[in-house]
């Protein structure tokens, strides 16, 4: 426990915000690793489009991890950036799709983004009343994550506004539906 934090916050509130941010840090660290895994494992006719679409998002999410970690430090706490921290903090499983075609990966990735964005919105809600600066940072990050999810979904959407993997609750099921669509 630190003896200092951001001016205007109690050290308890600083620690509360830092704990919320630690979960986002591990989520972002897991996400940029998952994105690279897809970058390496996508195959098939649309390989190059997806392979190249992923890398700018890796850079963006790595930047978000950096911003979140440095905010934790500014709050007077210690950001945990190790593989063990990701494992300890996460409530989800490893990304489950290996070598597969573009739409299969994108359908699975859509579920990944739904999980990350849902948790980020909950984090925005929980820090909002304590620290509007952290809230503002998370809002900006989440807006860009939501934009990228639209990029992902645009590959999976038909003219009627349906997603090919609609109703899937697991990545493998989503990938399977998208592969057959
Ligand atoms: Fe690469």
TrEMBL record:
Q: Name one Pfam family in it.
A: Ferritin
Question: Cross-referenced Gene3D superfamilies, in alphabetical order?
Answer: 1.20.1260.10
Give UniProt keywords alphabetically.
DNA-binding
GO MF, one term, reads: DNA binding
Could you tell me which InterPro entries the record lists for this protein?
A: DPS_DNA-bd, DPS_DNA-bd_CS, Ferritin-like, Ferritin-like_SF, Ferritin_DPS_dom
Q: Where is the Ferritin/DPS domain?
A: 19-158
Give the family, as the similarity comment puts it.
Answer: Belongs to the Dps family.
For this protein, the record's PANTHER family field holds: DNA PROTECTION DURING STARVATION PROTEIN, GENERAL STRESS PROTEIN 20U
Indicate what this protein is called per its UniProt record: Starvation-inducible DNA-binding protein
Q: What is the lineage of its organism?
A: Bacteria, Bacillati, Actinomycetota, Actinomycetes, Mycobacteriales
